[in-house]
């Protein structure tokens, strides 16, 4: 995730101070890792240094003085460029799940590898049930639904892959250990 670009996008909706940006991030990207306040303010400092945001005044609402920030013309242009760049599909298979499956197939006997894959599939299925419950909740916000749809699609792909891999365990083991 590009934190600077996400903050620029949040500022595109109007002037905000760091606390509001952190709250907006965590609300609009509910399944992402929450931003730390220090990360928000450090990123705002770099964006301001680069002329992409500008201080738009001070606010004091029963607490410390807060600097509000606004998107500049250059910031809008940078945001537009970033949004217009198509994200390339991942060129390499990477991730802890993939690595663990390969290592389990290499290091374990067929029964242990199969048991690990079944346990992993069970964990994925349980998470899928949890997310489906969120998706069918009448109180789920649109932000949450978009995030849940994304997660469900990825879990579904992982489950299909785990199923296919389970079908191949014996063949893999014969190939590696013969």
Automatic annotation (TrEMBL):
Domain Transcription regulator PadR N-terminal, chain residue ranges per copy = 7-80
Which domain of life does the UniProt lineage start with? Answer: Bacteria
Which Pfam families does this one have? PadR (PF03551)
> By its UniProt entry, which InterPro entries does this protein fall under?
Tscrpt_reg_PadR_N (IPR005149), WH-like_DNA-bd_sf (IPR036388), WH_DNA-bd_sf (IPR036390)
- Report what the protein is called: PadR family transcriptional regulator
């Amino acid at each position: 995730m590009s934190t600077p670009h996400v903050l620029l996008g949040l500022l595109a909706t109007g002037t905000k101070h760091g606390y509001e940006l952190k709250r907006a991030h965590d609300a609009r990207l509910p399944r992402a890792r929450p931003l730390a306040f220090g990360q928000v303010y450090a990123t705002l400092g770099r964006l301001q240094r680069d002329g992409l945001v500008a201080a738009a005044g001070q606010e004091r609402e029963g607490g410390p003085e807060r600097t509000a920030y606004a998107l500049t013309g250059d910031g809008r242009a940078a945001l537009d460029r970033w949004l217009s760049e198509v994200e390339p599909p991942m060129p390499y298979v990477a991730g802890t799940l993939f690595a663990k499956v390969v290592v389990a197939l290499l290091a374990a006997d067929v029964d242990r590898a199969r048991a690990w894959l079944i346990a992993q599939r069970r964990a994925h299925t349980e998470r899928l049930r949890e997310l489906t419950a969120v998706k069918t909740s009448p109180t789920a916000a649109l932000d949450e639904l978009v995030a849940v749809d994304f997660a469900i699609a990825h879990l579904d792909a992982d489950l299909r892959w785990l199923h296919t891999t389970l079908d191949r365990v014996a063949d893999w083991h014969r190939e590696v250990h013969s």
